[in-house]
């Protein structure tokens, strides 16, 4: 078609363009059926009508001129009819083009994981298919197990790219570029080497939908999807694949990964007290969590560094791994011999190929301090108990001792390693001590501020309190009626309750003055280290049975709920409805500990051996003053199974008591959990059947946010005072399924292939991929449609026809 005809028909084509192999004319609005018959009949009728009208209008008009005018009017009408039936000029051209093959590669974080390939025969077959060589003495199978999934896909697919590219144009996408649903100019030239596994989510469905949208209307041989099938964001892949079904595009899924998923061993935590005494044995626990390694063994290695010196080995232990998510603990017993900062580094090894080695190491820091308790003793009178206590505590090198005798004369030099000239008169001065020993004190003489000072000293600062009852002031102390008096109600922090109106009968008074009694140790007392007078258990029982008896005792009603009773009155007649009289008990109060002794004659034990008396008090002072000396810490450590939890995890919290004596007091534990600013809820702890020193609580993490755990002793809560709680905070993060669900999702890949008529291929079977994709070059017919109803030639015919008719009418004097 020359340029003139293009202009007349209104066809806008660039010079030299190919119109096509064939041309035909169609009418888009041509009537059909009865309408077409009517049109055929109407045309001659219209011509006859025009002839009749012109003949009637101008009878004298010559025949030739009448014919010309009818012809012109007919041509105009025919042009209008042509416009109404919408003529379309169709030019067609047949061509052969290369089909398109889209390759989408999952570049999410899970594709950088390596798989264990536990089946040795399959692993060997894959090594042979991928031609993985041995290197540096490392077997090829080991190299396979250490290679990330994406790298295996690249090495498996690269040798087949040449065959796949014969007759096809290859388009390479990562998840981000595929999801854009817009032409990616770089997709045709992108190299596999440029793909890196670094995306935090896997929008596989979005990638499928985006690629299908980009290539809509083009001949697509198929869509190759290399992924582990873990789609955790965006559109459902199966829903997105419905568009592939409509377009007839098969999906060929390359299964990247093993069905069993990556194995992993994680060193969850090093359990250690943050502050310990030098030369004091400490227990350090290394907690390990495994996945996919049931019944396998690993080695736990522990190293230590003291005051930034070189790392030195502490020990190694073999651990048998359990079910997924089950924590295994290796325990090391260590006695620090040097004051300062001790760093511990643990690692777990020899577990075989793992998901990652980044979580196989953990560190913890422990501050080692000098073992010396700062003790203040306040005594109401210089009783024999006070005098012997003073001498014993001054001999104890682990106690920094100061004493204050209340009824001493002015100018009396008080005893102690650092004699004091006055008592503390404010909280700050009292808090300089670690423990307070009250031997039948006159609380009224101490001053009205002391009840509150003592309560805060124990309940908030973690100080220790030992109260020794006596015959001079203790009766008045417990019977003080006004809680706001100088005596106050501070006795609520003691582990015993003395109800109003309690008195001794005459028989009890005679028994106290005439007959000696011995202590009856409770089961808790028999196992408590403060009554360990000899290392040999048999010898210790002999010593306990030989201790000289006592005469006087101070009766109380009962032990406070949650307190631990260590000794009761040995005489069966000294009892009430709560059992025999409590003579020695202890309890936790906030971070501190209090102890009650209902007699003032432990000095009699020195008649058997001075070591009995000195050792008992040394151990008791260490017990109550240890927490404060270690920085106000609680007598337990709180451990979390993970450093970071995720929504859907089971949160496991362990409370471990480091002192054997504190295990009995663990029954009085009260805890509450606050989640993301919501009202706190109580949390119940249960004692571990395997480890009596461990209490555990488990609950599901249902929402992300900050979690706060507060723990106090039940006796602290019952006392109603504002004690300092143990506070532990941790976070629950949103789920990261790239890490939380790393196994191959074969069912999804199978469904995608079945739905679209494709196929799932293993890494070792990619040679079959080219044969599975049937389409290569495609022959297609391209049509170009040009509408002619508004072409210049039709408008020209109408204009020229009407103009010519008007001229003839003018010449014929018809206008």
Characteristics:
29% helix, single chain, 7-stranded mixed beta sheet, 8-stranded mixed beta sheet, 815 residues, elongated, 24 helices, 36 strands, alpha/beta
Q: What level of helicity do the residues show?
A: 25-40%
Give the structural class: alpha/beta
Overall average residue pLDDT: 83
Q: So what's the overall shape?
A: elongated
Q: Which regions have little confidence, pLDDT < 50, spanning 5+ residues? A: 14-19, 481-487
Our measurement of the CA-to-CA distance between the termini, rounded to an integer number of angstroms, reads 42 Å
Number of helices: 24
Taking all Cα atoms into account, the compactness measure Rg is 48 Å
The strand line-up of the biggest sheet is 15-14-16-17-25-24-21-19
What does the model show?
- It is a single chain.
- The chain is of the alpha/beta class and 815 residues long.
- It has 24 helices and 36 strands.
- The strands form 8 sheets. An 8-stranded mixed β-sheet has the order 15-14-16-17-25-24-21-19, with helices on both faces. Strands 1, 2, 3, 4, 5, 35 and 36 form a 7-stranded mixed β-sheet that branches. It has a 5-stranded mixed β-sheet with strand order 7-13-12-9-10, with no helix packed on it.
- Strand 9 (297-306) and strand 10 (312-320) form a beta hairpin.
- The protein is elongated and about 165 Å long.
- It starts with a helix and ends with a helix.
- The model is unreliable at 14-19 and 481-487 (pLDDT under 50).
